[in-house]
Design a protein that fits this description.
Number of strands: 13
Helix content: 10-25%
Largest sheet: 5 strands, antiparallel
Structural class: mainly beta
Strand order of the largest sheet: 4-11-8-7-12
Radius of gyration: 34 Å
Order of helices and strands: HEEEEEEEEEEEEE
Shape: rod-shaped
Number of helices: 1
CATH superfamily: Fimbrial-type adhesion domain
Distance between the termini: 86 Å
CATH topology: Immunoglobulin-like
Strand content: 25-35%
Length: 172
């Protein structure tokens, strides 16, 4: 063996060493996600959630039945639940505390009231209550539920603005 080959031997070993020492290991990583049954409802502004206001409009007399139908952001109930999740929408009695005889109160004189009620359909057959309410199944997108309001014939109280606040509960 010549001297050049002997001198180059350590260099060759160093070049081959990483290939001889190189190893690899294969492993797996687990990946998981849990989708919880979830819904969102209403429109949130600041810290409050609202469905807007169902307006019966302006009238000089309550000598005829007045009906109102909600619209998006004006009293309709927006619910967005994951696909296939059942949910229920309930409404309380508002100022009166009684779903069967809701009333709007005069903003200047709480003793003055206008009777009204809210219904689940345009037939006005079923009062939207805090027990049965309205049930549906989520589809993963916004679902808008129309609220139907009716003011029955009654003695017309003093002129003014009459209002009520009804709490809506969406449960799933």
């Amino acid at each position: 063996m010549d001297i050049k080959a002997l001198l180059l031997l350590p260099l060759r070993c160093m070049l081959l060493m990483p290939a001889l020492l190189s190893t690899s290991h294969a492993a797996t990583i687990g990946v998981t996600a849990t989708l919880l049954p979830a819904c969102s409802a209403g429109t949130t502004s600041g810290s409050s959630t609202t469905f807007g206001t169902l307006s019966f409009g302006n009238y000089a007399s309550l000598s005829s039945i007045i009906s109102a139908t909600s619209a998006q952001l004006a009293g309709s109930i927006r619910v967005n639940c994951i696909n296939g999740l059942s949910y229920k929408i309930l409404m309380d009695g508002g100022n009166s505390g009684n779903v069967n005889s809701r009333n709007m109160v005069n903003t200047s004189n709480a003793a003055l009231k206008v009777l009204y009620n809210l219904y689940t359909s345009a037939t006005f057959a079923t009062i939207w209550d805090n027990t049965t309410g309205l049930s549906d199944i989520g589809n993963g997108a916004d679902q808008w539920h129309t609220v139907y309001g009716r003011v029955p014939v009654q003695t017309t109280p003093a002129a003014g603005t009459y209002q009520d606040t009804v709490n809506v509960t969406v449960s799933w």
